[in-house]
Amino acid sequence: MLWNLYLRGGVVYVPTVAETEAGFFLDIEPVELAPVTDTEAVRRAVKYAFDRGNPKIPTPIRATFPKPVVLKYAKLKSWSAFERGCTNWTIVETNGSYQIKQGRKLADRGWEDDPAQIEILPSGIRVDEVVSRVAASVQSAVSKK
After folding, report:
1. What are the chain's domains?
2. Who has the most CB within 10 Å: 3, 113, 132, 143?
């Protein structure tokens, strides 16, 4: 399982992440939004995304490949505009073990996992605890700025 979370302009964006038939992941509707300062709202947004899991969808073809779903909520027209001033996290679950991976910007565009910002959670941790750790990680990043 995999989930994405974006922080931009004090707003946390948590899209549903689908797995395509080809095996890659794509952010889709619904998207949860929460003010980063509202811990409970951030937790709820992450929990709702976790509850939806990774629905399987047909692999889009190039001609119908959708724009990133979060653009509409950020009221932006391009991914490059969204990336500016944005921080991202990826949460990965494998066999009941979770990792929270904060991204770092690449020189040209996009993000990669920051090896110094990967939190490996104890095996068997409850989902509610994972959700709380994700919210804490996001809010901690804001307080460091």
Report:
1. 2-144 (3.40.1590.10)
2. 3
